[in-house]
Write a structure and sequence with these properties.
The complex is a heterodimer.
Chain A lengths: L8 E7 L7 E7 L3 H12 L7 E6 L11 H5 L23
Antiparallel strand pairs in A: 1-2, 1-3
Chain B lengths: L16 H12 L12 H20 L1 H5 L8 H26 L5 H9 L17 H21 L5 H29 L3 H20 L11 H6 L7 H18 L10 E3 L8 E3 L5 H11 L3 H14 L1 H16 L1
Antiparallel strand pairs in B: 1-2
Helix pairs in contact in B: 2-4, 4-7, 6-7, 6-8, 6-10, 7-8
The chains are: A alpha+beta, B mainly alpha.
Bound molecules: fe (ii) ion (2 copies).
Chain lengths: 96, 326
C-alpha cells in the first residue's frame, strides 16, 4: 500500500473545440503524464466533450489563499473608471 | 481548482459561535463552499462520509451489471450495458476526486471500502439472477439515483455539486435504456413478460430503500439540510420516486408489489400522490449492516480486482520513476 500512496494526482483540462480555452473538468490519479492523458481521455471525453486535453500535476498548481480574497480582489470593485460605461459620451456619437 | 495545497490550512480554526454563524450565513446566501475555504469540521466530515459512500456505490454498482455483459442477448444491448457500466466507473472517479478535496486520500477510502468500514448503497447487495434485472436496475435503481442526484447538483459544497452535474448528464441514458429493455420484455412472449414482472417484484422494495431511513429515524438529515448539503428529505424524495414510477409501470402493464398502494388526491399539497405500504426496515438494516445476499461477494470481488491490479500499479510507478531518473 505504501507504493500506492505515491500515485500522483493530476488536474485535467479539456478544450471543447478549436478556438476555445482549455477548461478544468476534474482530476485523477496516474503514475505519469502519459497514463494521466490516457485515463483523462477514457474518463472525461466519452461523449465528444473535447478535442484536446491538458494534464497538470496537482502539486504544481499554486492557488491564491481564500482567506485573502478580500484584500486581493475587493479593491477592483471601486475602480468603476476602468469600465466604458463610466464615461459620458453624447448619444449622437453613436456606437463607440 | 482542486489544488490540495492549502487543505488543512484551516485546521487551527476555533469553531466559536461567530465562526459557525458566519459559515451559516454564507450557506444561507447560497454561496458555494470551495475546498480551501474555512468550514466546520462536522461539515467536512459529513461530506467525506457522504461523498465516499456515494463513490463506493458507483464502483460496487458496476458488479451486479458487469455480471451480464458477456450474456447480453444482442449487440445493441451489449454496447449499451458496456457504456453504462463504464460510466459508473467514471462516476466513482469524479466522486472520489471530490472527496479528496476535503483532505481524505484515495487510498484511505479504498481501504475503508475493502475492510468493510465504509458503507455503500444497500441496493447493490441484491443478486441479478435474470436478464430482466438489467432493465429493472436501469429503470428503478438509476431512476432512484437520479431523484437523489438532481438536487445534489445544488449542494453547497462546490466540488460535489460539479461532480453531480456531470453525473446527472450521463445518468439519463442509464434509466432510459433500462426502461426500454423492460418494455421490450413486456411486449414479448408471456414468459418474457413474467420475467419482467418477477424482476420488478424483487427490486421494487429495495429501490424504495435506496432513499435511506425514514426522516423520523435519519440521524444526519436535519443538519445536512441546514447546511444545504441535501435539499430534500429522504421521505420527500421517496415519495417523488413512487409518484413518478407508478405510471411508468402501468404503461407497460407491470404491477408494483404493494397491496397498500393507492392514489391519494390530498397528497403533495393537493396535487395528489400515491400512498404506499410500510418498508421492511428490518431488511434494510440487515443489508446495510452487511447481511444481505451479496455483501460478501461484492467486497470479495472488489478486493480481488484491487489485489490483481497491484502489479499493474507497481509496474506503472516503477516505469514512471525510471523515466524521471533517466
Ligand atoms: Fe452512476
Ligand atoms: Fe447510472
Amino acid at each position: 500500500m505504501s507504493e500506492e500512496a505515491n500515485m500522483p494526482l493530476w488536474e485535467v483540462f479539456i478544450r471543447p473545440r478549436v478556438g476555445l480555452h482549455h477548461k478544468h473538468v476534474g482530476s485523477l490519479h496516474a503514475a505519469d503524464s502519459t497514463m494521466a492523458l490516457q485515463a483523462a481521455r477514457d474518463v472525461y471525453t466519452r461523449r465528444e466533450e473535447g478535442d484536446s486535453i491538458w494534464v497538470v500535476a496537482s502539486k504544481d498548481i499554486y492557488a491564491s489563499d481564500p482567506s485573502q480574497a478580500a484584500e486581493n480582489f475587493d479593491p477592483a470593485s471601486d475602480k468603476v473608471y476602468r469600465h466604458p460605461s463610466f464615461y459620458d459620451i453624447p448619444d449622437e456619437v453613436g456606437h463607440m | 481548482m482542486y489544488s490540495q495545497g492549502l487543505i488543512g490550512a484551516d485546521s487551527n480554526i476555533v469553531e466559536d459561535q461567530a465562526f459557525l454563524d458566519a459559515f451559516q450565513q454564507r450557506i444561507d446566501a447560497e454561496e458555494k463552499i470551495e475546498p480551501n475555504d474555512p468550514m466546520p469540521q462536522a461539515y467536512r466530515n459529513t461530506l467525506i462520509r457522504m461523498i465516499g459512500q456515494h463513490a463506493h456505490s458507483e464502483i460496487v454498482g458496476m458488479l451486479p451489471e458487469g455480471n451480464w455483459i458477456t450474456r447480453a442477448p444482442s449487440l445493441r444491448r451489449k454496447v449499451a450495458l458496456l457504456a453504462k457500466v463504464q460510466d459508473e466507473g467514471g462516476h466513482g472517479l469524479y466522486l472520489y476526486s471530490a472527496a479528496e478535496t476535503l483532505g481524505v486520500s484515495r487510498e484511505q477510502m479504498t481501504e475503508e471500502l475493502l475492510s468493510g468500514k465504509a458503507k455503500y448503497s444497500s441496493i447493490f447487495n441484491y443478486p441479478t439472477p435474470s436478464w430482466a434485472d438489467i432493465g429493472t436496475i436501469g429503470w428503478l435503481v438509476d431512476g432512484a439515483a437520479i431523484m437523489n442526484q438532481v438536487p445534489l447538483c445544488r449542494c453547497s459544497y462546490g466540488p460535489y455539486a460539479r461532480a453531480m452535474i456531470r453525473v446527472c448528464k450521463e445518468e439519463s441514458f442509464h434509466q432510459r435504456q433500462g426502461y426500454e429493455l423492460v418494455k421490450t420484455l413486456c411486449e414479448g412472449t408471456a414468459e418474457q413478460k413474467a420475467m419482467a414482472q418477477d424482476s420488478l417484484n424483487r427490486w421494487w422494495w429495495p429501490s424504495l430503500m435506496m432513499f435511506g431511513p425514514s426522516d423520523t429515524d435519519s440521524q444526519h438529515s436535519d443538519q445536512s439540510m441546514k447546511w444545504k448539503i441535501k435539499r430534500f428529505t429522504n421521505d420527500a424524495l421517496r415519495q417523488k420516486f413512487v409518484d413518478a414510477t407508478i405510471p411508468q409501470a402501468e404503461l407497460i402493464g407491470l404491477h408494483v408489489p404493494d397491496k397498500d398502494l393507492k392514489w391519494n388526491e390530498n397528497k403533495n399539497d393537493g396535487k395528489g400522490g400515491y400512498d404506499f405500504g410500510e418498508i421492511d426496515w428490518d431488511e434494510f438494516w440487515r443489508v446495510v449492516k452487511g447481511h444481505g445476499l451479496m455483501n460478501k461477494d461484492r467486497i470479495k470481488a472488489r478486493k480481488k480486482a484491487w489485489d490483481d491490479g497491484a502489479w499493474v500499479r507497481e509496474a506503472a510507478q516503477a516505469f514512471a520513476k525510471k523515466n524521471v531518473a533517466a
